[in-house]
């Protein structure tokens, strides 16, 4: 869907922001670009919608070279969400979200209807929020409006630059969850820039770790990245607690469960779903102060997970 081929960007003052970058993002995939400050993440993102022109290399969108496209036309097909969301301060929330569909020539009634639906999608009750002005919203709510506005044109591709940056950790997790849900529902192709490795492994189907000068240090699934960092730089960047982080990206599997027979109900914490991560499982055990938890698939119990099971699952994910 998106392909960067030997893309480089040297700014006029000689700063090499990105060098020889090769990167592919599949249709419907969510890719996170992560790395220390100044390593070229935003530059890379902005080259995809040509807010910045690459110095070398080519960028393809659906097989077509983006440098052949009319930049304005190109950007209409690509949603763009930034941290300083850039809402129009003197327009109501609903009008902010309607802007792009109106630009496309949709009727006011259709655009309004769509804007109201999108507010609902991003978890803002239209009855409460549609007629407010941006300054009457919290930071997290404003960011949701930003996401709704980017979705309004129904673009197949979304570029997001630190979209959940300016909010506290609790709201941040909530926004991430909501966005993951929206993404699963709508199947957009997303490239998301973040400096937060936790956000990257939580959100990304794949994670691209950038090093200084826009060098791609590793491009892998979160599991792979945390289990097998490609070099010392990546190992250092994902941090010495990567073992703990792996809990959040490793699923529970049937083969790591023990049978339910013979287990005393008093030993069990609340049951969790087989789709949960090891992190959720361990968190439930700790919260309920129980040595094991029941695991369900739908309504049926399928077994019991113990800390030993968590350990085996982590080890198995390395193989
Ligand atoms: N217009 C510009 N002119 C010269 N250098 C620039 C320009 N824009 C960015 N840079 C430099 O290019 C490098 C990459 O910047 P970029 O914004 O892409 O990094 P980033 O990884 O997104 O950083 P951050 O996480 O801090 O936002 C930095 O060294 C930055 O100072």
TrEMBL record:
Keyword Ribosomal protein among record annotations: no
PROSITE patterns cross-referenced by the UniProt entry: ABC_TRANSPORTER_1 (PS00211), ABC_TRANSPORTER_2 (PS50893)
Record bears the keyword Oxidoreductase: no
Top-level taxonomic group: Bacteria
EC number, as in UniProt: 7.6.2.9
Ranges for domain ABC transporter: 2-238
SUPFAM superfamilies found in the cross-reference section: P-loop containing nucleoside triphosphate hydrolases
Pfam families per UniProt: ABC_tran
Example GO molecular function: ATP hydrolysis activity
InterPro entries linked: AAA+_ATPase, ABC_transporter-like_ATP-bd, ABC_transporter-like_CS, P-loop_NTPase
Keywords annotated in UniProt: ATP-binding, Nucleotide-binding, Transport
Family: Belongs to the ABC transporter superfamily.
Protein's recorded name: ABC-type quaternary amine transporter
Source lineage: Bacteria, Bacillati, Actinomycetota, Actinomycetes, Propionibacteriales
